[in-house]
Structures are given as C-alpha cells and as structure tokens.
C-alpha cells in the first residue's frame, strides 16, 4: 500500500533505458523539485514506483478559490448542451395509497435531475399521477358493483383500496368484469357524465 495521491511505475521506461527500475525511480524522485506554490507537495520513490503526493493546504485553497470564482457553475459542464432529458419520477397509481417505494424512486429521480442539469442538459422532471386508465376503470366498476365508500378521508381511501382489491380478485375468475372495467375506463376518457361524476367523487 503506497501512501501517495498518484503513482507511476518506472519498469517500462527503465527497461527501455537499460537501467534498474528502483534506482531509476529514486533518481527521478530526487530530480523532481516541485515549485513552492505547486499543488504537488512531495515526490518519493518506493521500489520502482514514483509517487506524487498533493499538498493538502494548497489543494484546499485552490479548490475553494475555484468554487468562489465559478459560483453556481462550479462542477458543471456543457456536455449535454442543446439536448433534453426527461426524468420520470415515481408516477404513482393513485387508485392505491402511496408507500415508501414511491419516495425512494422520487428521490432517485431528483438526484438524476441534478446530475443531468450539472452536465448541461435541459431537464424535464415528470411525476405523472395515474388518475386515469384501467386502474380507475376498475375503481369505477367496483363502486357501481359494490357501492361507494360510506366513510370520508383516510377511511374512505381504505374502503376504495378494499373495493379495488376485491374487484381485481373476482376479475381473475370472471373475464366479463375485466371488460366492464375497460368500458368504464373508455367512458371516462370520452367524458361520459356518469363516469366523470364517479371519478370526481
């Protein structure tokens, strides 16, 4: 384990010159004298390895100066300039309650947004709420079949989830129920007043 920030192996160069690799590395280390303001603090040799160690204080000062000079642009590049990236977040199915998995994928999505912006891309973050489609066709069909929830708030959500699960379970044994859910989904998309009324309940 060599305590250095960067190491170069002298074997190939020493072989080309016909000299001992360890001796060659030692001679190079002795010959290299970093200037007083250099980010390189020390040059040493360990066997045939030529080691460069950075000067911690000067490196820190250089980085802080670069951060202060660049401001918000520090760490950014223009590799993605002129290109667009769309990041899809959790996009939950709101026919069911959200869970910790939605938070996880949303956090990952936001991290990707920051990364791509730093790379110069135009970034569009999309968290599409699934309040349309087959899952709501199932909810509407279930409410028509079993009745609307009688509770309010969180309790009503629990009842809707139970209706959704019940209809899904029965749908596996009765293909007609799946067709009924599709009809409700299509009616919702076409603006059917009854479907819209149930959807907005």
TrEMBL record:
<dbReference type="GO" id="GO:0006420">
    <property type="term" value="P:arginyl-tRNA aminoacylation"/>
</dbReference>
<dbReference type="InterPro" id="IPR014729">
    <property type="entry name" value="Rossmann-like_a/b/a_fold"/>
</dbReference>
<dbReference type="GO" id="GO:0004814">
    <property type="term" value="F:arginine-tRNA ligase activity"/>
</dbReference>
<feature type="domain" description="Arginyl-tRNA synthetase catalytic core">
    <location>
        <begin position="77"/>
        <end position="200"/>
    </location>
</feature>
<keyword id="KW-0436">Ligase</keyword>
<dbReference type="InterPro" id="IPR001412">
    <property type="entry name" value="aa-tRNA-synth_I_CS"/>
</dbReference>
<keyword id="KW-0030">Aminoacyl-tRNA synthetase</keyword>
<feature type="domain" description="Arginyl tRNA synthetase N-terminal">
    <location>
        <begin position="9"/>
        <end position="54"/>
    </location>
</feature>
<dbReference type="Pfam" id="PF00750">
    <property type="entry name" value="tRNA-synt_1d"/>
</dbReference>
<dbReference type="InterPro" id="IPR005148">
    <property type="entry name" value="Arg-tRNA-synth_N"/>
</dbReference>
<protein>
    <submittedName>
        <fullName>Arginine--tRNA ligase</fullName>
    </submittedName>
</protein>
<comment type="similarity">
    <text>Belongs to the class-I aminoacyl-tRNA synthetase family.</text>
</comment>
<keyword id="KW-0067">ATP-binding</keyword>
<dbReference type="GO" id="GO:0005524">
    <property type="term" value="F:ATP binding"/>
</dbReference>
<keyword id="KW-0648">Protein biosynthesis</keyword>
<dbReference type="GO" id="GO:0005737">
    <property type="term" value="C:cytoplasm"/>
</dbReference>
<keyword id="KW-0547">Nucleotide-binding</keyword>
<dbReference type="Pfam" id="PF03485">
    <property type="entry name" value="Arg_tRNA_synt_N"/>
</dbReference>
<dbReference type="InterPro" id="IPR001278">
    <property type="entry name" value="Arg-tRNA-ligase"/>
</dbReference>
<dbReference type="InterPro" id="IPR036695">
    <property type="entry name" value="Arg-tRNA-synth_N_sf"/>
</dbReference>
<dbReference type="InterPro" id="IPR035684">
    <property type="entry name" value="ArgRS_core"/>
</dbReference>
């Amino acid at each position: 384990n060599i305590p250095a920030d960067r190491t170069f192996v002298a074997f190939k160069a020493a072989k080309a010159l016909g000299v001992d690799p360890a001796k060659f590395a030692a001679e190079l280390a002795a010959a290299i004298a970093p200037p007083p303001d250099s980010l390189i603090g020390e040059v040493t040799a360990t066997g045939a390895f030529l080691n460069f160690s950075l000067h911690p204080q000067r490196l820190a000062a250089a980085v802080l100066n670069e951060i202060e000079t660049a401001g918000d642009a520090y760490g950014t590049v223009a590799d993605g300039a002129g290109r667009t990236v769309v990041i899809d977040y959790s996009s939950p199915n709101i026919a069911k309650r959200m869970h910790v998995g939605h938070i996880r994928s949303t956090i990952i999505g936001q991290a990707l947004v920051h990364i791509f912006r730093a790379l110069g891309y135009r970034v569009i973050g999309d968290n599409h709420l699934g309040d349309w489609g087959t899952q709501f066709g199932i909810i509407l069909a279930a409410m028509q079949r079993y009745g609307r929830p009688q509770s309010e708030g969180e309790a009503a959500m629990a009842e809707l989830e139970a209706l959704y699960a019940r209809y899904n379970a029965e749908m596996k044994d009765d293909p007609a129920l799946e067709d009924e859910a599709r009809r409700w989904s299509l009616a919702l998309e076409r603006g059917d007043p009854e479907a819209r009324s149930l959807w907005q309940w």
